[in-house]
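Practice set, problem 2.
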Amino acid sequence: MAASARLQKELEIKSKQALATTKDPLERLRAACLARGAQGIKGLSILFKIMDDDKNRKLSLEEFQKGVEDGSIDYEEFLRKLRPPINNFRLDLIAKAFAKLDKNHDGQITVEDLRGVYIVKNHPKYVNGEWSEDQVLRHFLDCFDYGKHKDGIVTRDEFVDYYSGVSASIDNDMYFDLMMRNSWKI
């Protein structure tokens, strides 16, 4: 069995065990999603987007039949709350990656910080002349910004939030470590 398939199976087994033993509703929902595999939470996100008839990124009480107390729910916020807490080992790796990108150490990553760190020469839209270097770098930064807050500046909190989402689908610390070290050469 390939390593990723084995890790996926371990995640599913661990989540099913947690589902059988926990009483906390949020923990039960988290375990139910993760028991469906690493894409379980992502699948819930897709389901929310399908249910969002008016595309306002919130589910009304009508759209969300089971109901919520305040009448609507922002599904990005909901998914952030659903994520399991990230441990200090992973937070340290995320901090190292952020520090590598934040060349001027001002607590945020901009296009200028990325120059020389993220090489655009092989990006398809750069190669075919459709995008400039700045456009490729800005598109890269937009991956870390979420919602309507895409301003071309990625704060430490946004970077941690992004990798908390990635972390939620990786059950093994060593696999997360390998992924971060290979991605950022840290």
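Problem 2, part (b): a different protein.
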Amino acid sequence: MKKKVQIIIKNNNFKKEHKGKIISVFRGYAFNYLIPNGLASLANKNQIKHYRMFSEIAKKEEEANSIAIKKIQSRIEQISKITIYKKIGHNKLMFGSVKEKDIINWIYKYTNIKFEKKQIQINDINNINISLINIQIKQNIVVTVKLCIMPYNN
């Protein structure tokens, strides 16, 4: 009888090992703790093949996702400035302010890329000026774009 058995880890938080990794552990540890608590399963040919197939699919999806993010980043970096026209009154004050929604609509109109409000980081803009805004494409990818607020009268 073997002292150690091979198991496949089902959770990412098990001893700093990632999901799908095959490790050898003692029989008692495997059958009394890991398998009943759903942290691992016994490694047989079919399950090993199953986890490898899913890990390959996950890698391909991750690669496709990173390529799409790089395309979006390059398209946003090509924008030299975002120009938004706002109505001004007699005393040279702007009606309202520029919000994330205005910037999202401008980007969608000219690049056909949709963003969410939380991805656009701007300060309160209540006057006619030129400022910088940050567009967060992914958690660690941020692009800075120039924002120009231009006046117009009716």
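Answer key, part (b): The chain is about 35% helix and 30% strand. Residues 81 and 146 are 5 Å apart (CA to CA).
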